[in-house]
Specification:
Elements (H helix, E strand, L loop, with lengths): L16 H14 L4 H16 L4 H10 L2 H8 L10 H12 L3 H18 L2 H10 L4 H4 L25
Helix pairs in contact: 1-2, 1-6, 2-4, 2-5, 2-6, 3-4, 5-6
Length: 162
């Protein structure tokens, strides 16, 4: 059964222990007053993330998430254009009617729990697939790619034949 991301899971089926633990982590990270509020954040962020993530990374991440969370993410059809991290937050805020600050907070709280469930190499692969701004949402530094250093042109050095 695929769940409807707009209906809290508490109203659809009992939660698994793994999902309860994920919600507890999100509740702690986000300082949410209830598990229901944490569940709302998880469902909003993972549904949005499911529209952004494609390929093997999507499958690998879904395999590491509790079944309820994986269903929310994989029930989404990936969009043809991938958003930057900030555009992702703005899109979620527009869809949920929440403020940018609250939505950014929700995103960071959920991705902190996701990062705890996935190995660091998988998160790195995911971040390499996405445009700029996503690393910060996952609590990582956004590093610019190394610039090529120009080698100054100088006189050619001739070496004697060996």
């Amino acid at each position: 059964m695929i769940t409807d991301p707009r209906v809290p899971l508490a109203h659809q089926q009992p939660r698994s222990t793994a999902y309860e633990q994920m919600l507890e982590r999100v509740r702690y990270e986000g300082a949410y007053p209830t598990l229901e509020r944490a569940d709302e954040a998880v469902r909003l962020v993972l549904a949005g993330f499911g529209r952004q993530l494609t390929g093997g990374e999507r499958d690998d991440l879904a395999a590491r998430l509790p079944l309820e969370a994986a269903r929310v993410m994989t029930a989404q059809i990936p969009e043809t254009t991938t958003l930057t991290g900030w555009a992702f937050v703005k899109d979620l805020a527009a869809r949920s009617g929440g403020s940018l600050a609250t939505t950014r907070w929700d995103t960071g709280s959920v991705f902190a729990a996701v990062t705890a469930l996935a190995d660091p190499d998988l998160i790195t692969r995911i971040l390499h697939q996405l445009p700029t701004g996503w690393a910060l949402l996952f609590g990582r530094a956004e590093l610019a790619p190394p610039r090529r250093q120009r080698v100054p042109a100088g006189p050619a050095v001739r070496r004697p034949p060996a």
